[in-house]
Design brief:
- Keywords: Signal.
- The protein is α+β, with helices and mostly antiparallel strands and about 110 residues long.
- It has one domain.
- Helix content is about 40%, strand content about 30%.
- The protein contains 3 helices and 5 strands.
- It has a 5-stranded antiparallel β-sheet.
- The relative contact order is 0.24.
Length: about 110
C-alpha cells in the first residue's frame, strides 16, 4: 500500500512538471449538451493520433503549434485540463502550452 502511494505521488509530480505552462484560454458550455464519455474516449486517442480538424464525440478537435517541438508534449501538458473541462460540461475549450517562446494549442469546439 505504501509503495502505491509513492508511485501515485511521483506520477502527480511528473504531471505537474509537464503541465506547468499549460492553461485553459477558452471554455464555453453554451453550445449544447456534450457526450462526456465520448469526449473522454476521443481525448484518450488524441495523444498519438494528430487528427487536427476531425470530428469526434460530436465536436471538432484541433491541435497546432508554433515552434513547439513535440505534439505529444502538448497533449501531456493539456490533457488533464481538458479532462476537467469535459467533466464541467464544456462544449468549446482550448488549452495552450508554452515552452519558452514556442506555443501549442489543442481542444475542441
Amino acid at each position: 500500500m505504501h509503495l502505491t502511494a509513492i508511485f501515485a505521488a511521483l506520477a502527480a509530480f511528473a504531471f505537474t512538471q509537464v503541465s506547468a505552462g499549460a492553461s485553459i484560454v477558452r471554455e464555453y458550455d453554451a453550445l449544447g449538451a456534450t457526450d462526456q464519455g465520448a469526449l473522454h474516449t476521443c481525448l484518450d486517442n488524441y495523444r498519438t493520433d494528430n487528427w487536427d480538424g476531425m470530428d469526434c464525440g460530436g465536436r471538432g478537435w484541433f491541435k497546432g503549434s508554433s515552434a513547439y517541438q513535440n505534439p505529444m508534449n502538448c497533449y501531456d501538458a493539456c490533457a488533464g485540463l481538458l479532462v476537467q473541462a469535459i467533466d464541467r460540461g464544456a462544449s468549446d475549450v482550448q488549452c495552450n502550452d508554452y515552452e519558452g517562446f514556442a506555443e501549442c494549442w489543442m481542444g475542441f469546439h
